[in-house]
Every structure is written in C-alpha cells, then in structure tokens.
Amino acid sequence: MSSDHYFSPAPGTVLKTRQITVQLHGQDHELTTANSVFSPSHIDTGTEVLLKYAPEPPLTGHFLDLGCGWGPIALHLALASPESTVWAVDVNERALDLVRTNAATLGLTNVKAVLAADVPADISFRTIWSNPPIRVGKDELHGLMQTWLPRLESEADAWLVIQRNLGSDSLQRWLAAELPDTFETTREAISKGFRVLQVHRS
C-alpha cells in the first residue's frame, strides 16, 4: 500500500487543497477537498446513490458516518438533523481535517471528526450510514461491520452502499449469516451498479 493511499493514516504527499461545489441536502455548497483522500474532485457515485435512496435520518441522536473521507455523508446528516451529533470516522487524518474544515464552513457544530478509538465506547447510534472502504480487504471490512453495526440502538437502521462488482451481494449474505438474529439485512435500492443495503436492528 503506497504512503499516499486514501486509507493511509497519514498520507505522505504534500497537501494540495481544492474547492469544489457539491449538492448536499438539496443545496449547493462550496467545500474543500485535497489529494490523498477518497474522491477529491466530486461526490463519488456510490455516495450519491446512498444520499438519494436512504431516507431522511432521525431528528436527534448519535449518528455514525463510517469511512467519512472529506465528509459528504456526515455533512448531509448534520444539515438534515441539526439536533443530532454526527460522528465522522476515518483512519486518514487528512480526511478528518477536511471534515472539520467543511463543517466549520457550513456553520455546523454537531459534527465530530475523529479516529475510531476516539468514539466513546458507551455511545450507541440512532443510525449508521457508510460507503465502506471495500478495498481495505474482506477481513478488515468484516471487522468494521462486526465492530460498529452491533452499536446500533434498538429499532434503528444502518444504510450501506456497495458496488455490485465489488461484492455487495456476498456482503449482504455475510451480514445475514454473521449478525445476531435481532438484525435483518435487506437490499433497498439498485442504481448505477451499486446496491443500498439496510441493516435493521429490532
């Protein structure tokens, strides 16, 4: 893995920021991205599909954006639910800095961009949204799912978007087999080669 891959903890490249205009929660916003983060020039197709097909988030509670990158999902959630607390989690410190910058640009005080270890262990989540980092490998991806999905509150949902040819169907089968019986995984949407999965905890 090269030192400047988007899932490197500390990219070794010289920081080069750029401004892009994106639509989040129905409005255009000018935000900051940079090299050595995921999809720095635009909102990637998978995230666009997730934002289109996932329902409006709950009004309050702790939310999780797992693998937040420069922040489109976390910022969307924070704009949609200003009374919530949105935990934006990534391994890439540059990405987390960009989330903090973009949250400040939008005047959002309800976004916490942190490493996984900095999320308090006693917090459970009203919703989890993720365009998970499939390319980290199956074992690491499964570890992320086993770590975070059990932290859903009762009667809460996670929304995941995965490209079909990168294993969305196999991940759906794995979730159904590995999560406790109180979890149900269903395919809620298909668009542009991506699947949106809902994981409901009863």
Q: Outline the low-pLDDT stretches.
A: 1-5
How does the overall form come out from the CA principal axes? globular
Chain oligomer state = single chain
- In the CATH scheme, the class would be Alpha Beta
Percent strand: 25-35%
What radius of gyration results from the CA coordinates?
A: 16 Å
The arrangement of helices and strands along the chain is: EEHEHEHEEHEHEE
CATH superfamily: Vaccinia Virus protein VP39
- Neighbour order of strands in the largest sheet: 5-4-3-6-7-9-8
> Any idea what the CATH architecture is?
3-Layer(aba) Sandwich
N-to-C terminal Cα separation, in Å?
A: 39 Å
Q: Which structural class do you get from the secondary structure elements?
A: alpha/beta
Determine the mean pLDDT. 94
Number of strands: 9
| Helix amount | 25-40%
Instruction: Describe the sheet with the most strands.
Output: 7 strands, mixed
Number of separate helices: 5
GO molecular function: S-adenosylmethionine-dependent methyltransferase activity
InterPro entries: RsmC/RlmG (IPR046977), SAM-dependent_MTases_sf (IPR029063), Small_mtfrase_dom (IPR007848)
Protein name: Methyltransferase domain-containing protein
Organism: Cryobacterium levicorallinum
